[in-house]
Amino acid sequence: MDDAPIGEPMIAGAVTPGESQPWSDRGRHLLQEYLPAVGVFVGVVVVWELVASSLDLQEFILPRPSAIGTAFVAEWPILQTAAANTLFEAVGGLAIGVLLGVAAAFAVARWGRVRDVIVPVAIAISAVPIIALAPIMSNWFGILNPFAKMAVVILLVFFPIMINVVRGLTEVPAMAIELMRANAADEGEILRKLRLPNALPYFFTGLKVSTTLCLIGAVVAEYFGGSSEVLGRVIVQSSSRLRFDITWSAIMVTAAAGIAFYLLVLVVERLVIPWHSSLRELES
Amino acid sequence: MTARGVARAVLLFCGFVIAVVLIWEGAKAIGGDPWRFRDGSGQEIVYMPPLRWEIVSDLSLPHVWEIWGALAAPVQREQTQSLAEYLVGAAIYTGREAALGFVAGAILGLVLAALFVHSRLAERALVPYVVASQTIPILALAPLIVFAFGNGVLGIVIVATYLTFFPVTIAALKGLKSSDPRALELMRACAASRWAIFWKLRFPSSLPYLFAAFKIAATASIIGAIVGEGNPGGSQFGLGRALLNFNEQFASGPAKLFAAVLASGLLGISFFLAIAVAEALVLRRRRSVRAE
User: Fold this and answer.
1) Distance CA B84, CA B77 (A)
2) If I label A60, which of A226, B45, B50, B53 is the partner at 20 to 30 A Cα–Cα?
3) Does A223 contact B264 at a Cβ distance shorter than 8 Å?
């Protein structure tokens, strides 16, 4: 940190002074780090609720948090089915897309010439708004077929995973490779002991991007039509009926799923590559 | 990128397009519907592919030349405007919305990052939300935003802005903090103002990070514009509307939908290329300054 918080005023009420045990240091650090964010959250919700009720605003675009909560409870049966259907598309597409992306990355990384051709093309393709393919997928696989949405997710997820894993497998320190070769390691050993561990952090970076993309892909593909019992349709239909409380509760469900996926990947990342430097930085 | 590098990239791209067309038509030659041609005397020549795959039938995957032909044909019956003209117009319309959103989002992202880099309190209070919002599917909000701002361009521009500012904020924050600590010390020792430190040190060192984010944001802004237009209550024009309309006409003319998808893809790639060219120009000048 170049802007050291020297002399920065302590946040009022953050800690009781005079404690010096390590655990309270840690607690103070956590409070100092997270209190402003928590404060903003509570402040926004309270101000939103107060402003909406005191000014008697039309509960149109921004219903009060309590109204969203009520709609969430009332519409739970529909939201539950919709979430299950959408998550099936998103997770299914994510799983297939990640498998294909990793497989393609291994094939591409194996042959240097192929890599020089494929990687620039893959980067150019990922500049294409893949969402535009959603209507074609609906026509190919049937508008009610969940695989039509899954196919969009697969395409969206494939490129970031492939590009990241190829980088991880190939951007290995040349010295390390030379050292292993000098010690008569064969290509298989170099792959297992050097390239694979090197690729894991890249893979997790790609996976984190993909968890968000898979939900975006599923929900946006649903905007373009299909079964009505999915989150994307609930969002579109409730907003065209001006039931924005339902729209917001569906958005909250989608957001919760997105955050849950992301946290899951973080936990798995921590378990699989505890040695990675970007994790150590977070802890310091 | 050198001239040779550019030539190589163009060749690669042409090779890729040719490969796609060959695979496309090859699959149709093996498992598609019968190919029908007329020779010079008007005699019909029919080629029967040996297999029948539903996925490459003329309805699912029209011949490349049918898509090409559809581009020249009128967009609707009894209209003079050709599909190509219509799609170019739609792409310009969508591109303008996306560009407006991109510029607004980039400025917003930069201002926020500049605020965060100067105030630890603001950083602690707000950055968690900027990061958390990366993990939620922002496009779920698109119908709501478009609805809130009426049928005009504004709602769609806001969706594009929204999608642009996240990657830019995060990358700019990283980039503004990435300047050489020794240079920072030196400037502070010389009593340089925060303003001078920002423009002469922090901002230049954030440029590589910024361009990486701009490339992501360029695509994101177009996705935002297309999804914004494609929503009920969205625009009457633009590629998003074209995709929806031609989706409804798919059974009678699948080639139109493919042409609209092609136009979306070309718009995305041209935005990406524009950023890549700007990056090459800006960073090349910087490198030559450094070499002096």
Assistant:
1) 15
2) A226
3) no
A217-275 pLDDT per residue, tens = 898 888 877 788 888 889 888 877 878 888 889 988 888 888 888 889 888 988 888 87
Residues A235, A246: Cα–Cα separation, whole Å:
8
Residues of A in contact with B218 (CB under 8 A): 127
Cβ contact B247–A225 (<8 Å): yes
Q: pLDDT for B133-191, tens place per residue?
A: 766 666 777 777 777 776 678 888 888 888 888 888 888 888 888 888 888 889 888 88
**Fold (CATH) for B83-291:** MetI-like fold (1.10.3720)
Three-class secondary structure of residue B82 per DSSP: strand
Q: Which two tokens stand for residue A204?
A: 């997790």
Give the distance from CA A114 to its chain's centroid: 30
Query: Can you give the residue ranges of every domain in chain B?
Result: 3-61, 83-291
Of A129, A219, A224, the CB nearest to B137: A219
DSSP B250: T
Q: 10 Å Cβ neighbour count for B79?
A: 10
Question: What domains does chain A contain, in order, with CATH numbers?
Answer: 84-283 (1.10.3720.10)
pLDDT range class, residue B31, cuts 50, 70, 90: confident
CB atoms within 10 A of CB B45: 9
Q: Output the pLDDT for position B249.
A: 83
Residue type, A143: I
Q: Compute the average pLDDT of residues B67-93.
A: 85
